[in-house]
Amino acid sequence: MVESQGTIAGIRRDRIDTLARHEAERFVSTRPRTRAALDSGADQFLDGVPMHWMRDWPMPFPMLVAEARGARLTDIDGHVIDDFCLGDTGSMFGHSPEPVARAIRTQADIGLTYMLPTEAALESAALLTEKFGDFHWQIATTASDANRFALRVARAVTGKAKVIVFHGCYHGAVDDSMVELHQGQTRTRPGLAGQVTDLATLAVACEFNDLNSVESALRAGDVAAILTEPVMTNSCMVLPDPGFLDGLRALATQYGALLMIDETHTLSSGLGGYTGVYGLDPDVFVVGKCVAGGMPTAVWGLRPAVAEAWRIYDDARPGGHSGMGTTLSANPMQFACLAANLSQVMTAGNYAHMEAGAERLATGLSESIARHGVPWHVVRVGARVEFICAPGPLKNGTEAATAHKPELEAAIHTALLNRGCLIAPFHNMMLVSPVTSNEQIDRLIATFDDILTELLT
């Protein structure tokens, strides 16, 4: 979309600046306890927060949470907020689902970590196969670790070095995915801190929805795996073209690479994730964040043929550390939560509620956008909804980057929060949980509409 000098995404810049200023002032004035607590207690943290990116939320300073229940959270100043961010998917099934909370209480009485398996581990493996398909599973703490470890296996069993990723992709903190396309060439993303390795020696960046570029990269014969989300999610959301994911499967098979599907964000798609809903056939399956109901847990699974290839490789390699695994991963608390979440929370009934609510949200936002006549659009993948301040649909990471409007989005995010609605901070993502009510959804739609009215009148 071509912007005039005085507008961003169809909104006058002076209106955006006015909204941003007023909402920042309102946020500060209504959170005196938060401000005082941060001023007195945050100086021992690097950058004043326990994870540096918590400073990147659009508010003037971070919100301090007192408690979270269901699909609401309360900050230390007493503001009760409808939570559609839900830990950016980590709490997609709601905060502390009762079966998971009960499992935590029970497990806490009998030990937190053993470095040995439990019966719940065996139950979890069977449930993972029931939910996601025929894979041989391993447990990690984060999806970043799961992707990292699975890539080691891919390189081991193929004897190849490189991984194909997609421009604008998100796979956590995996170094190999921190590349981009620049003038048609793969390069290390320039914003990385302390990076000393040329990541273009490890990865090839292609455009999402471009099978020709993928095949061109595969022809070199040095690609161990194609690592992709089924939907690009951490930028402005991009859906796969019809046939694209099936095309990746066919190309991976043709050129002797493994297809890795990262479902960490797309578990919102429905029961079994996007892979289950749409019948994908990955060699490696990865999911994290909400898979254990909010307990830090990730899983990665290998198809039986890949698992057998790994066993053959593993039997022949020299003894010593594989470079995969951490001491606290696969602990009994993770398995207690996995078993509870997979069996009692991640159900067809809960997904039906989530998808109906998300459809209600997407329809309401789309109607508001149309009524105001702004050139925006809304995308939904199961329980995940996103408004994008540009025309759509988007086709790839380059288009997604162009569609991102940081100044406008930051102002909208703070305005929503001041009116009692929290959405994901670094894009415009909203999740509907099994405990999100229609009243909360309608309140978010009405609030979004009020903000658009303020920006346009």
Short description:
This is Aspartate aminotransferase family protein. By secondary structure, the protein is of the alpha/beta class.
What does this structure look like?
The protein has 14 helices and 18 strands. Helix 6 packs parallel to helix 7. By secondary structure, the chain is of the alpha/beta class. Strands 6-14-13-12-11-7-10 form a seven-stranded mixed sheet, sandwiched between helices. It has two domains: 7-95 and 348-456, Aspartate Aminotransferase, domain 1 (Alpha-Beta Complex); 98-345, Aspartate Aminotransferase, domain 2 (3-Layer(aba) Sandwich), CATH 3.40.640.
Keywords for this structure?
Aspartate Aminotransferase, domain 1; alpha/beta; four-stranded mixed β-sheet; about 450 residues; Aspartate Aminotransferase, domain 2
Any chance you could write out the topology, listing elements then pairs?
Elements: E1 7-8, E2 11-12, H1 13-29, H2 32-41, E3 65-69, E4 72-75, E5 80-83, H3 98-108, H4 119-132, E6 136-140, H5 143-158, E7 162-166, E8 179-182, E9 185-188, E10 203-206, H6 211-218, E11 223-228, H7 244-255, E12 258-262, H8 273-278, E13 284-287, E14 298-302, H9 304-316, H10 332-345, H11 348-372, E15 377-381, E16 384-388, H12 397-403, H13 406-418, E17 421-422, E18 429-431, H14 438-456
Parallel strand pairs: 5-17, 7-10, 7-11, 11-12, 12-13
Antiparallel strand pairs: 1-2, 3-4, 4-5, 6-14, 8-9, 13-14, 15-16, 16-18
Helix pairs in contact: 1-13, 3-10, 4-10, 5-9, 6-7, 11-14
